[in-house]
Amino acid sequence: MIKRVAHIAIAVRSVDEASRFFEQVLGLRRERTEVVETERAKVAFFPVGGTEIELVEGTEPGNPLERFLEKRGEGIHHVCLEVANLDETMGRLRAAGVPLLDETPRPGADGTRVAFIHPKGAHGILIELVEGPALNHASEP
């Protein structure tokens, strides 16, 4: 079951540089920044209403995010949906013939578990599914 939009991820070349725009121009507050080793990415989260904007920067040359930036430039990378039970959701998607990028959930930011739906199965949109205890960061500004 989909619970809510957890975040909208924006691929950027520099989290620190892009954060200045979101903080100084848009007036948002950066809640946290972390490096997610399993994703080879540095991420920064900005709460907006009941969701978050996530800035994502690749930390190693040649990783998928770097290839995305080379091909498309900075911009929206994926939409993340919070689910109640990731294993059950993945099973339901597989049964419906939806292609997944992950065979099993992998570690995400803040101790969550994540899996991605292939854009070919979601009308061209990369969708991240997330489950975990630490998803209550987003709050009203």
Word description of this protein:
The chain is 21% helix and 37% strand. With 141 residues, it is α+β, with helices and mostly antiparallel strands.
Shape type: globular
Order of helices and strands: EHEEEHEHEEE
Measured by DSSP, the beta-strand proportion falls in 35-45%
Second-tier CATH architecture? Roll
CATH class: Alpha Beta
Keywords:
single chain; 141 residues; alpha+beta; 2,3-Dihydroxybiphenyl 1,2-Dioxygenase, domain 1; eight-stranded mixed β-sheet; 8 strands; 21% helix; globular
Topology overview:
Layout: E1 2-11, H1 15-25, E2 32-36, E3 41-48, E4 51-58, H2 64-72, E5 75-83, H3 86-95, E6 106-107, E7 113-117, E8 127-131
Parallel strand pairs: 1-4, 5-8
Antiparallel strand pairs: 1-5, 2-3, 3-4, 6-7, 7-8
Summarize the structure.
By secondary structure, the chain is of the alpha+beta class. It has three helices and eight strands, in the order E-H-E-E-E-H-E-H-E-E-E.
